[in-house]
């Protein structure tokens, strides 16, 4: 009974927070209805029209009340690197919704406040893990295609094209994410941004060591002159040698990485096996408060151990 009351209080507390963040101003809504295009209202239908307007109001209020300029810029940069079409305020809303849903789900499954709080924390962190995963995948795809991109630029330069024209050739012949990033770079240049600033923006969006070599070579060539195609060819050889060394290191450290995964997953496998063989033998760990604390401490220790093994087997080149 006490747990249900505490859970109900927590839900009411979060409801109050969301009402404070997203409570719409009726006067603002009336003004918006006066000035918004009535033709769009007819096309979309009243309910859908009101929903779209309401979501725009929620997003604006989230941006003004929760996100500072510095935090908003940081989130926007992180989301931009992942290639996910999402605004910073939408990301924050996604975090709170995921936390609330997972917390309520665990409360329904297991009426335990410690597990519910753990669910809130995990749910709040899930969107960040997803964004980080998408960023790693996009960065790997970008680095894998960077060598072909530079070779395309070299071929265009030797054919007599300028560097900007060579980048247009890259847009026509490359796939995402290289195509998207170079296209954005060219658009920035069309809107008045200098090539130096556009290249710096590209480097900020895609923090790649190989890309940094390319950008530095182009910037130096624009200042002192020289044969850019020859310089880029040298960079291609450097990238190939670095990738070769990285593959060798990955092969040599494979045993350590596999050992880390085996050590990390072994306790979970043994727990499942013991539960299937004799549920009462291991059931106390998940039904008693002290058992749950022991399981939580062991899980944290295993996560720290996996993190240390990953650090030891990750060698920067």
Automatic annotation (TrEMBL):
<feature type="domain" description="Type II secretion system protein GspF">
    <location>
        <begin position="152"/>
        <end position="274"/>
    </location>
</feature>
<dbReference type="Pfam" id="PF00482">
    <property type="entry name" value="T2SSF"/>
</dbReference>
<feature type="transmembrane region" description="Helical">
    <location>
        <begin position="115"/>
        <end position="131"/>
    </location>
</feature>
<keyword id="KW-0472">Membrane</keyword>
<keyword id="KW-1003">Cell membrane</keyword>
<protein>
    <submittedName>
        <fullName>Type II secretion system F family protein</fullName>
    </submittedName>
</protein>
<feature type="transmembrane region" description="Helical">
    <location>
        <begin position="258"/>
        <end position="277"/>
    </location>
</feature>
<feature type="transmembrane region" description="Helical">
    <location>
        <begin position="6"/>
        <end position="24"/>
    </location>
</feature>
<dbReference type="GO" id="GO:0005886">
    <property type="term" value="C:plasma membrane"/>
</dbReference>
<feature type="transmembrane region" description="Helical">
    <location>
        <begin position="289"/>
        <end position="309"/>
    </location>
</feature>
<keyword id="KW-0812">Transmembrane</keyword>
<dbReference type="InterPro" id="IPR042094">
    <property type="entry name" value="T2SS_GspF_sf"/>
</dbReference>
<feature type="transmembrane region" description="Helical">
    <location>
        <begin position="91"/>
        <end position="109"/>
    </location>
</feature>
<dbReference type="InterPro" id="IPR018076">
    <property type="entry name" value="T2SS_GspF_dom"/>
</dbReference>
<keyword id="KW-1133">Transmembrane helix</keyword>
